[in-house]
């Protein structure tokens, strides 16, 4: 309940911003081993602005990990015939109810039942205001996902991206399913490279509103923002340290673009890389001890790793002659990046322990990858024809989604963290 309260506080404050058109999600592919789950219509869910059971179904279907069985209405959720659902092929059953409270909020309750063992796996009771009924449903889907797969669900997280319509740029924030779009910043100048803070309350980005690239940190809860890097030349590619205290940036203030680290309040800037080439796109490792970055020091752009204190750098990517935009999974085991192969820019992942790489996308103009906080999916930008859109792919490449808007181009995505 404490975690839900913090998420509701955050989304409630963000909801004060102007809403805009929703993203449309298209899904293709399924997981290798789908878990059959029956989901019942929640009792009295028509009282809520959001149909809770439908959102849960949609979340679990998008993951590709579940085969959804429509359970319809169960007259008495407290007296379930487990054998009946086992015969229908369901390994688990989701039942629940929605109750309107006197203060205008809703009590959303659910149970996850194991039809094989005939026992209760989990239950969750939440009190939610009308505008947060979708969030309550996402939290239930997260619980189902975790209990049945052993992996924390990410349906209640948020994404951020840049939408361009003509010469207008919008930094927007949305639910992970593309709903609940809110405007964080509007500008007539480009906005690029947004990056979530680890606590999910801030986004760092580059804005050209001063007619040059400047790095800002934007507090989504208060609307206040602070300049973090406005040095001579280019200021670009911000990324957060795991503890949120520092931001890595790429600056050209001393000539060639190099990697620097600065405190999140803009103080204490120090140079980390020192090469005769271009070092850019820094990303902290999961433990905060290293920085991955793109460098052309070997002739073409490749990804390297060095200590957060600087020093010698080790090359990480060797497949292909053009690898950029490193991103590290939350467990530190997988590197995602964009690689140019046969003239196509595509999303790849590299197992850092084995050195085995895998191409995840079948599109040809990919950029800006971002891991889901549970490490199971990657969000990235791509282009089809002349339209820029977002795509999501599972780390095994089996499940793919496309997120589009009716008008404009969307790009520069970043997937937010779990809310603590």
Indicate the structural class: mainly beta
Instruction: Give the CATH superfamily of the largest domain.
Output: TolB, C-terminal domain
Named CATH topology of the largest domain: Neuraminidase
Main sheet characteristics: 5 strands, antiparallel
Number of strands: 30
Q: What is the gist of this entry?
A:
With 420 residues, this protein is mainly beta. The chain is built from 4 helices and 30 strands. The chain is globular, with a radius of gyration of 22 Å.
Descriptive labels:
single chain; 420 residues; mainly beta; Rossmann fold; Neuraminidase; 30 strands; 11% helix; globular
Give the secondary structure arrangement, pairings included.
Blueprint: H1 2-14, E1 24-28, E2 35-40, H2 52-63, E3 66-72, H3 82-87, E4 92-100, E5 106-114, E6 119-128, H4 133-149, E7 158-165, E8 168-175, E9 182-187, E10 191-196, E11 202-207, E12 214-219, E13 225-229, E14 235-240, E15 246-251, E16 258-263, E17 270-271, E18 279-284, E19 290-295, E20 302-307, E21 313-315, E22 323-328, E23 334-341, E24 344-351, E25 357-359, E26 367-371, E27 377-384, E28 387-394, E29 400-404, E30 409-415
Parallel strand pairs: 2-3, 2-4
Antiparallel strand pairs: 1-29, 4-5, 5-6, 7-8, 7-30, 8-9, 10-11, 11-12, 12-13, 14-15, 15-16, 16-17, 18-19, 19-20, 20-21, 22-23, 23-24, 24-25, 26-27, 27-28, 28-29
How would you sum up this structure, described in words?
- The chain is mainly beta and 420 residues long.
- The protein has two domains: 31-149, 3-Layer(aba) Sandwich (Rossmann fold); 158-415, Neuraminidase.
- 11% of the residues lie in helices and 45% in strands.
- The protein contains four helices and 30 strands.
- It has helices at 2-14, 52-63, 82-87, 133-149, and strands spanning 24-28, 35-40, 66-72, 92-100, 106-114, 119-128, 158-165, 168-175, 182-187, 191-196, 202-207, 214-219, 225-229, 235-240, 246-251, 258-263, 270-271, 279-284, 290-295, 302-307, 313-315, 323-328, 334-341, 344-351, 357-359, 367-371, 377-384, 387-394, 400-404, 409-415.
- The strands form seven sheets. It has a five-stranded antiparallel beta sheet, with no helix packed on it. Strands 3-2-4-5-6 form a five-stranded mixed beta sheet.
- A hairpin with a 5-residue loop joins strand 12 and strand 13 (225-229).
- Helix 2 (52-63) packs across helix 4.
